[in-house]
Design goal:
- The chain is an alpha/beta fold.
- The protein has two domains: 204 residues, Isopropylmalate Dehydrogenase (3-Layer(aba) Sandwich); 140 residues, Isopropylmalate Dehydrogenase (3-Layer(aba) Sandwich), CATH 3.40.718.10.
- The protein is 40% helix and 22% strand.
- The chain has a ten-stranded mixed beta sheet, sandwiched between helices. A two-stranded antiparallel ribbon has the order 6-7.
- α1 links the parallel β1 and β2.
- α1 crosses α9.
- The protein is globular and about 60 Å long.
- The structure holds nicotinamide-adenine-dinucleotide and manganese (II) ion.
Length: 360
C-alpha cells in the first residue's frame, strides 16, 4: 500500500475546524478504498503559538516540513495579531521558502449550489496565481514615520524567470483542459514595466503552445467579464495580487468562499506543495461549528491528485458533489447544516462508493 507523509497545520480560527473535517474525510477514504495510507503529523503553529513563543515557525521548522510529501493547511489570522504579521509569519514563509510559485484555484458551481449569477452554471474556470513574487515580493519600506512627508512604498517585483515559469505552467494546464483556452490578465496600460514584461513573455511562451487559444484582458475589465460572460473564460493567469482578488470573486460567483480550494504547487517537486482552502480564519463564525468544510474537502482532493492518488481524488470529488447535491448546506450556502453534518454526508457518500477504487 502506498503511504504518504502529510504535515498538518490547522492554524487559527475555523482553520482548525475545517482541517479536522478534512482529515476525517481523508481517513474515511483511506480506509474505504484501502489503496493508500496517510501518516500525519500536526504542527501547532498558530497565532496563539506566536503570542506564546514570539514566532510562528520555530528554528528548523521549514527543514522539518521539507521531509513531508505535502502540507495540509487551514488558515492563519487572529484579532490579536496584525494580519501582515500573521501572513508573513506563517503562510508566506512556506509558500516562498518552498518555491510554491504556482497557485491553482479552480472555480465551479457544484451541484445543488446556487450561484449569485443567473448563468452561474457556465462557470468552469481555473485561476492561476503567480505565488512567489510580484506585489507580494516583500519589497518596500517606510520612512519619516508620523511626519507629513512620511512615505510608504510597496514594490512589485517581476523577474523574467518568475514570469516565464508561471506562464509555462498556465499553458501546460490549459492544454490539458477540453477548451484549451488561456486568458492573460494584467494592467499593462497603467503599469508600464513589470506588466509589459508579463505581456511580452506570455506571447513568447505562447509560440510553444500553438494548440492553446489565447486572449488578454486588463484586470478591471476581467472582473466585469467574469460576471457578465462567464462562458467566455476557461483558464486565466494573473499576478499574485490580481489573482488573489479575482479568485475571491470567482469563489463568490461559484456560491461561497467556503467552497473554494487552492493548491500552492512547487511543480518541480523539489519541495512539498501546500493545499488549503482559499478562505481565512473567519472570526465571525469561529467556534460555532458552522464553517463550510467543502473547500477543505476539495483541496484534499487536489492533494490526493498531486500525490498520484487520482482514483481516490475522483471518489472524494464525487462524494463532495453528492453531498452538495443532497442539500446538506451550511449557512453560507443558505442552509442550516453544521460542519459535522456536511462531513458526515461526505463520509457517508465515500462509504457508499463501490468498495473498489473507481477507475481513474
Ligand atoms: P475570511 O475568509 O476569514 O472571511 C470572509 C467571510 O467569509 C466571513 O464572513 C466568513 O465568515 C466567510 N467564510 C469564510 N470561510 C468560510 C467557510 N468555510 N464557511 C462559511 N463562511 C466562510 O476573510 P477575512 O474576514 O478577510 O479574514 C479573516 C482573517 O483570516 C484575517 O486575519 C485574514 O488575514 C486571514 N486570512 C487568512 C487567509 C489564509 O490563511 N490563507 C486567507 C484570507 C484571510
Ligand atoms: Mn486571498
Amino acid at each position: 500500500m502506498r503511504t504518504h507523509k502529510i504535515a498538518v497545520i490547522p492554524g487559527d480560527g475555523i482553520g482548525t475546524e475545517v482541517l479536522a473535517a478534512g482529515l476525517e474525510a481523508l481517513e474515511a477514504l483511506a480506509s474505504h478504498t484501502g489503496s493508500f495510507k496517510l501518516v500525519t503529523e500536526h504542527f501547532p503553529w498558530s497565532s496563539d503559538y506566536y503570542l506564546k513563543h514570539g514566532h510562528y515557525i520555530p528554528e528548523g521548522g521549514l527543514a522539518k516540513l521539507k521531509t513531508f510529501d505535502a502540507i495540509f493547511f487551514g488558515a492563519v489570522g487572529s484579532q490579536q495579531v496584525p494580519d501582515h504579521v500573521s501572513l508573513w509569519g506563517l503562510r508566506l514563509p512556506i509558500c516562498q521558502g518552498f518555491d510554491q510559485y504556482a497557485n491553482v484555484r479552480p472555480a465551479r458551481v457544484l451541484p445543488g449550489v446556487k450561484s449569485p449569477l443567473v448563468n452561474g452554471k457556465e462557470i468552469d474556470w481555473v485561476v492561476i496565481r503567480e505565488n512567489s513574487e510580484g506585489e507580494y515580493a516583500g519589497m518596500g519600506g517606510r520612512s519619516h514615520r508620523g511626519l507629513p512627508i512620511e512615505v510608504g512604498t510597496e514594490v512589485a517585483v517581476f523577474t523574467r524567470t518568475g514570469v516565464e515559469r508561471i506562464h509555462r505552467f498556465a499553458f501546460e494546464l490549459a492544454r490539458k483542459r477540453p477548451r484549451k483556452h488561456l486568458t492573460l490578465v494584467t494592467k499593462s496600460n497603467a503599469q508600464r514595466f513589470g506588466m509589459v514584461l508579463w505581456d511580452e513573455v506570455f506571447f513568447e511562451v505562447a509560440k510553444d503552445y500553438p494548440d492553446v487559444k489565447t486572449d488578454r484582458e486588463l484586470v478591471d475589465a476581467m472582473t466585469t467579464r467574469m460576471v457578465l460572460k462567464p462562458a467566455s473564460i476557461d483558464v486565466m493567469v494573473a499576478t499574485n495580487l490580481h489573482a488573489d482578488i479575482l479568485s475571491d470573486l470567482a469563489a463568490a460567483l461559484s456560491g461561497s468562499l467556503g467552497i473554494a480550494p487552492t493548491a500552492n504547487l512547487n511543480p518541480e517537486r523539489t519541495f512539498p506543495s501546500m493545499f488549503e482552502p482559499i478562505h481565512g480564519s473567519a472570526f465571525d463564525i469561529t467556534g460555532k461549528g458552522i464553517a463550510n468544510p467543502t473547500a477543505t474537502f476539495w483541496t484534499a482532493a487536489m492533494m490526493l491528485e498531486h500525490l498520484g492518488e487520482e482514483s481516490a481524488a475522483k471518489t472524494l470529488m464525487a462524494a463532495i458533489e453528492k453531498a452538495t447535491a443532497s442539500g446538506v448546506h451550511t449557512p453560507d450556502l443558505g442552509g442550516k447544516a453544521r460542519t459535522a453534518d456536511v462531513t458526515q454526508a461526505v463520509c457517508d457518500a465515500i462509504r457508499a462508493t463501490a468498495a473498489k477504487p473507481v477507475a481513474a
